[in-house]
Write a sequence for this structure.
């Protein structure tokens, strides 16, 4: 059977950290530059029981049943995210709407969707960018005399949350700022230590400096396992494939990206690369 279908999806550090309605209220307020009222009802509806394309969405929630917000965290920008989010939002609407009402004559009113990506990868990226579903559409100019407007669009706002970027957003959401510091510390220690040890050192530093202190104390044993996939796969793309390219190892680079496209986990990719290296040595 397809491993993409059978493999259990692990919660990420990001989705676990932002699984509190009050933190999501603070996060949305910071991103949009608004103050969400304290009495506004924030309901989390993240797809925790639907395995789709080998992974779940990171965070989704409604505010007063007026807005439905989907937030994805990425350390490499995938330009196919608008297509994925189109499929995710359909699943979310299935989850929050009463199916019977879809067939009644009276029009139902649904929460307005908003889509965000929070980026903290190592590759240079602007503070803010916009991804659109329409860029994936095939051209139909040869089949239509003119184009009044697109029948379907989905707009995703991407914000760079690395240290030194979008400081106003980070300042308004302390949890997001602390998360950014934590990831930065892992990278800093990772220059001299393997991943597991660099995560451990970052956890120790953050606890000692009151950065995500409660979260890291409660989830410390899980964080290393979570980050194995959170960081390793995405940053292997940015680091390993780049190294292979610079060293002229084009076949190795192509093979690595093929494994990634198959939806394999970090451990599975490492195992495949190790077997290939052993066979070639």
């Amino acid at each position: 059977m397809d491993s993409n279908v059978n493999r259990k999806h692990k919660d990420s550090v990001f989705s676990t950290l932002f699984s509190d309605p009050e933190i999501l209220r603070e996060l949305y307020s910071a991103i949009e530059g608004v103050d969400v009222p304290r009495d506004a009802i924030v309901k989390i509806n993240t797809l925790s029981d639907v395995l789709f394309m080998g992974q779940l969405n990171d965070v989704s929630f409604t505010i007063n049943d007026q807005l439905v917000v989907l937030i994805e965290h990425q350390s490499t920008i995938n330009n196919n995210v608008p297509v994925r989010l189109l499929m995710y939002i359909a699943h979310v609407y299935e989850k929050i709407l009463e199916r019977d009402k879809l067939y009644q004559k009276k029009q139902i009113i649904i929460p307005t969707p908003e889509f965000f990506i929070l980026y903290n990868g190592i590759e240079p990226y602007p503070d803010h960018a916009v991804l659109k579903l329409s860029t994936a559409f095939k051209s139909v100019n040869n089949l239509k005399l003119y184009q009044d407007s697109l029948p379907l669009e989905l707009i995703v706002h991407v914000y760079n949350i690395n240290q030194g970027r979008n400081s106003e957003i980070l300042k308004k959401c302390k949890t997001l700022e602390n998360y950014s510091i934590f990831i930065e510390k892992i990278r800093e220690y990772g220059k001299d230590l393997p991943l597991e040890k660099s995560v451990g050192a970052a956890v120790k530093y953050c606890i000692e400096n009151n950065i995500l202190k409660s979260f890291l104390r409660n989830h410390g044993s899980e964080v290393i396992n979570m980050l194995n996939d959170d960081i390793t796969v995405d940053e292997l793309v940015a680091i390993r494939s780049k190294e292979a390219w610079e060293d002229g190892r084009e076949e190795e680079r192509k093979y690595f990206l093929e494994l990634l496209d198959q939806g394999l986990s970090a451990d599975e990719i490492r195992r495949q690369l190790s077997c290939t290296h052993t066979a070639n040595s």
Q: What stands out?
A: The first strand starts at residue 42 and ends at 44. Residues 1-10, 50-55 have pLDDT under 50 and may be disordered.
